[in-house]
Amino acid sequence: MFSRVVTLAEKAGKHVELLAVPGINPWTALVQTAAMLETSRIVMGLSPTMSPAEQGRMVGDAWEQLAKPRPSLSLEIVMPDPSQSMFFNLGPHPPRLWPEDVELTHRLWLDLVDKGAGHELRHRDVVSVALQRLQRDIQSNENGEVLEVVAATVKAHGPQKIAAAQETA
Fold first, then answer.
1. pLDDT at 168
2. Given this model, what pLDDT does residue 162 score?
3. Which string of DSSP letters, residue by residue, matches 4-55?
4. Three-state SS for 142?
5. Helix, strand, or coil here: 115?
6. How far is residue 130's CA from residue 83's CA, in Å, rounded to a whole number?
7. How confident is the model at residue 114, as a pLDDT?
8. What are the CA-CA distances from residue 77 to residues 39, 100, 164 (Å)?
9. Domain shared by 74 and 11, yes or no
């Protein structure tokens, strides 16, 4: 495996330093090593047995287990076509919003200002209120409707749209 990595790196004109890290859980070992090396990005190939989202979740779960303060890390998964990658930010990070979500936030802001919320109201306040309401709804006993809406939203954005957005990161 090391020989293949060196060959690919040389073809791309990149220098690599290889490192073998012992560990029981490869995801934990990967994230702990990245944190110790103070890197900002982890790059890996696509797993033959997992989707990119599953790989992202495994690395994200390992990141959550790091001692605080946890470093900001991003994960790049190189697809079979090496010119394409998927990117995941690990842990809390500002979300990339769809244009229609930015537009909806603005329309809600306009409506709230028109209804007397005050000129001090900002778009971030609209998002904050929406997130607090979502949290309340999720924690209620009647969260089935919220889960249905979330599932429909994920389905509407689909893997192709999400992959395209991540490739432009």
1. 43
2. 47
3. HHHHHHHHTT----------SSHHHHHHHHHHHTT-SEEEEEPPSSS-HHHH
4. coil
5. coil
6. 37
7. 96
8. 16, 27, 14
9. yes
12 and 86 belong to one structural domain: yes
Domain count, the chain: 2
The DSSP element (H or E) to which 101 belongs, if any, is: helix 99-114
Q: What is the pLDDT of residue 66?
A: 95
User: Are residues 69 and 104 both part of a single domain?
Assistant: no
Domain that holds residue 30: 2-90
Residue 54 domain flag: yes
Cβ contacts of 103 within 8 Å, gap of 6 or more: none
Residue 165 has pLDDT above 60, yes or no: no
Instruction: Provide the token pair at 107.
Output: 């329309």
What are the tens digits of pLDDT across the range 20-57?
889 999 999 999 999 999 999 999 999 999 999 999 99
User: Which positions ≥6 away from 165 have C-beta within 8 Å?
Assistant: 96, 98
DSSP element (H, E) containing 77: strand 73-78
Judge whether residue 10 has pLDDT over 70.
yes
Q: Cα dihedral sign for 42, 45, 51, 52? A: positive
